[in-house]
């Protein structure tokens, strides 16, 4: 990748981040929204540690009523940036949904830059281009796969799962029965859903 392309990519990332900061309205409460039937929603988040070049990743898959079908807390090593961490989290979410045999998914994260790259039809030539390409390839395994942006406040369960990995010795996948503090956050999200 040439230097000009790399600089353009980073400028786009900075522009997207700054527009999010400027356009955020503190009076608007952002909440998780349920997928429509027959979709499931895959939320992902990553926490990047610069000093260790590692990230913790949280993934949660929920149904249209907001109930957790699967959740995971994992760690990745040799991570180059926070953008790479978010792209790796996307891949973890896609793999988990694929392993469970879901065919229609909404994949939602709080990195506008990564989501924009995933939604783009063009090839990504940035430093995370290979990860974006891998995620797009995995998305073709589903009948329908939509990538959506959600502010962090609406992505609290995945964020908490990423943080929760710090307290674990090993990576973990839960089948419905998640740690109580994670379930409390999911219950809070369900409280705000419209009745079916």
Ends apart, CA distance between termini: 49 Å
CATH classification, class level? Alpha Beta
Shape designation: globular
**What characterizes the major β-sheet?**
6 strands, mixed
Number of domains: 1
Let me know the number of strands: 6
Strand order of the largest sheet: 5-4-1-2-3-6
Give the CATH H-level superfamily.
Answer: Ribonuclease H-like superfamily/Ribonuclease H
CATH architect. name: 2-Layer Sandwich
Radius of gyration: 16 Å
Percent of sequence in beta strands: 15-25%
Decide which structural class fits the backbone. alpha/beta
Helix count, DSSP H or I runs of 4 or more residues: 6
Runs with pLDDT <50, length 5+? 18-23
Care to describe what's here?
By secondary structure, this protein is α/β, with parallel strands linked by helices. It has a single domain (34-191), classed as Nucleotidyltransferase, domain 5 (2-Layer Sandwich). The chain contains six helices and six strands. The chain has helices at 3-23, 82-99, 112-119, 129-139, 156-164, 180-191, and strands at 40-49, 54-62, 68-76, 104-109, 144-149, 172-174. Strands 5-4-1-2-3-6 form a six-stranded mixed β-sheet. Strand 2 and strand 3 (68-76) form a beta hairpin. Helix 2 runs parallel beside helix 4 and helix 5 runs antiparallel to helix 6 (180-191). The longest helix has 21 residues, at 3-23. It is globular and about 50 Å long. The termini are far apart. The relative contact order is 0.20. The model is unreliable at 18-23 (pLDDT under 50).
């Amino acid at each position: 990748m040439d230097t000009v392309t790399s600089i353009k990519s980073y400028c786009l990332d900075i522009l997207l981040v700054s527009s999010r900061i400027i356009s955020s309205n503190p009076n608007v409460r952002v909440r998780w929204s349920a997928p429509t039937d027959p979709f499931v929603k895959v939320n992902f988040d990553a926490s990047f540690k610069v000093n260790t070049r590692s990230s913790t990743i949280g993934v949660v898959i929920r149904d249209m009523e907001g109930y957790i079908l699967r959740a995971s807390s994992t760690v990745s090593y040799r991570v180059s940036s926070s953008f790479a961490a978010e792209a790796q989290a996307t891949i973890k979410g896609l793999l988990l949904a694929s392993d469970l045999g879901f065919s229609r998914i909404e994949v939602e994260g709080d990195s506008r830059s990564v989501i924009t790259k995933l939604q783009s039809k063009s090839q990504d030539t940035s430093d995370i281009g290979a990860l974006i390409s891998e995620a797009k390839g995995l998305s073709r395994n589903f009948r329908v796969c939509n990538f959506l942006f959600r502010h962090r406040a609406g992505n609290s369960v995945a964020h908490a799962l990423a943080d929760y990995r710090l307290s674990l010795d090993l990576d973990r996948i839960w089948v419905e029965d998640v740690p109580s503090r994670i379930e409390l956050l999911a219950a809070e999200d369900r409280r705000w859903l419209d009745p079916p």
